[in-house]
Amino acid sequence: MIATQAVSKSYGSTQALQALTLTVEPGEVLGLLGPNGAGKTTTIHLLAGFLKPDSGSVVIDGVDVVKNPDEARSRLGYIPENVALYPFLSAMENLQHFSSLAGLKVPRDEMARKLVHCGLAPEAIHRRVSTFSKGMRQKVGIAIATSKNARALILDEPASGLDPHASHELSMLVRKVADEGAAVLMATHDLFRAKESCDRVVIVQGGKLVQEIDPASLSANDLEAIYLKQMESGS
Amino acid sequence: MIIKLLLMELRSIRSDGRLLALVALALATLILSTWIGAESQSRAKTGRAAAMELSRQQWEAIDGLSAHGVGHYGSYVYKPSSPLSTLDSGVMPFTGKVVRVEAHVQNPPSHSDAGSWSSLIRLGAFDAGTILSLLVPLLLAFSAFSSVSRDRETGLLRVLVAQGVSLRSILWGKSLAYWFLSLLLVGALMVSHVVIDQLSGEPLTTDMKTRLLLFGSSHSLYLLIVVLLSVWISARVADSRSALMILTIGWLVTSVVLPRITAEFSSQLFPLKSQVTFEDEMADDRSKGLDGHNPRDERRNVVRQEVLEEYGVEKVSDLPVNLGGILMQKDEEYGNQVWDVHFGRRHETVRKQIGVVQAVSFLDPFLAARGLSMAFAGTDQFHDAQFQRQAENYRRDLIRVLNDLDAKAGTRQENGRWNREKIDYATLSDFEFKPQSVDFALEHRWPEAVSLLIWLIFSAGLLQIGTGRIPIVGGSR
């Protein structure tokens, strides 16, 4: 489970989050929608323990992130908007290195399967990632994050820069991870992708949760209309 | 975990051609400086041997001079180079290498490299000790300034931390990788020194091995401190540019500005008299007596009377010894006291000046590293003072022996005149410099060693317990 309880965070005089409360149950994908500066990335960074909240609590799989960040991170998979890797290593070597840092002992053929499963072409597995496109790096990042078999997965604009096909594959993968029992929180701008892969969508603006939506009950156009209406009322 | 991160950082360094080129350049510079130092030392050794041989020939060719005359004729003693001066020349280029040894006069060492406009001095010292303590830290700072901040800027730090890697492990892994590069440089330098020594037929004594080991260890320790601080600053500040600026200013202050201010401050606090004033005051004391009320003639009369009483005679012409030799020796002993007082004061002032530098080394580890480097190479002021002390002791022994010969090697003729025996001066021994053991260096340089240890504990402590305020995310939120 992923949970924030009345979390607030400010940067100097700028209030990034105001008493934000969210819960993502195991097996659920929650989409976090909002414009730039709404507080999506701050929420992700608080969940990953990169930042400390001014007040409130952040919990990953029952572990308080502030009190026990190392333990919380061991239960967490994280995919940033731009996955940073070691450019002089191949995709396989990157996956090996990050897996070993997480204390995982995964056979090479299983790692290769993982990379392919995450959408990387088999011929790219042993290529240096410095030659990769953003989408390819993103796929390696997804393989790294999901190889931990974490109980919680947080994604920060993961489809940014991906082509439609790769983006669809990502949606399917996220769905699959959730179906295997993980709680997934995905910050995104992509309304269509949110509708495709999320069980619930929340809209945040000015650091506050302004609306919660069940995307299954709406078309993508309806979702967009609701989103735009919230943006207009908030601006 | 730390080993995995260390190996990955080394791979990262290896993939950066510019960094590898810098390390290769530093390595080549170090080995070149050692080779140049060895060549220079070899030339100095040859020159010293030739000068000693000439002095010996001139000494053995003395004929027809009285023992006291030989004392005036004098000789020269030559300072041997410390075997490790090829690694760090210390103060040696600026201090004299030759002392003229003669009766009545205590000459200061002369013929320094700096005074003779040696080619190596014109552009400043170019030795491994200077390169290791001055240039390699700059190279490390330039290499490590972005070690963490770059990862934060690219987002790699977030991916690492999210994988469960602690910031402490990341910082230690990076630090040890950069320190490994430093160890490569220091190790290669030490090996090249041993090889060059072996090729030149210089035997490595146990003391030299210990000194070499301590030389390498002290530099390695200093470079570890530099690396730990560089990595921590890279982690602590907001971006790579700020880290580079802080490290460059830090290097400038600790390696260039503060040492010079400290040297100036110590000179102001404990000023040394100019050479002219020093020599004038010593000559004055020598002629007037230590307390200023004891003219030389009066002293001579006192000694003359004492000798006459000792031998129970009324007249000098009845003495079974040559009074001239005894008077000369008494005068020498008086002069020795004057020398001891004046040089004692001068050495005490220098010691106090070094004490100021040693105290400031607790604020500036560069000063500690330089002090230890020179001390273990046997080229600091403490070691240099030993040459002057031993040269003076040799002079005193030689002149005492000559005065003794002048007083006793002969017979009193019936007409009261003193008939001197012919003396073979070739039997008198040459000056032999006894080098100080490494204990001597440690005895005088323990404050710098303690300073480096404190700095190591402090910088390691920053990595060990100071990671709480290190930002994992940069500008992006």
Question: Could you give a quick summary of the protein structure above?
Answer:
Chain A is an alpha/beta fold. Helix content of chain A is 37%, strand content 26%.
Mind explaining what this structure looks like?
The complex is a heterodimer of chains A (235) and B (477). Chain A has 235 residues and is α/β, with parallel strands linked by helices. Helix content of chain A is 37%, strand content 26%. Chain A has eight helices and ten strands. In chain A, α3 runs parallel beside α5, α4 crosses α5 and α6 runs parallel beside α7. Chain A is globular and about 50 Å long. The relative contact order of chain A is 0.18. Chain B has one domain. Chain B has 16 helices and four strands. Chain B has helices at 2-15, 17-60, 67-73, 119-122, 128-144, 149-154, 156-162, 167-199, 206-236, 240-269, 275-288, 296-311, 323-360, 365-377, 381-408, 438-465, and strands at residues 75-78, 98-101, 410-412, 418-420. In chain B, α2 (17-60) packs parallel to α8, α5 runs antiparallel to α8 and α13 packs antiparallel against α15. The longest helix of chain B is centred in the N-terminal third of the chain and has 44 residues, at 17-60. Chain B starts with a helix and ends in a 12-residue tail after the last helix. The interface between A and B is medium-sized, with 34 and 24 residues.
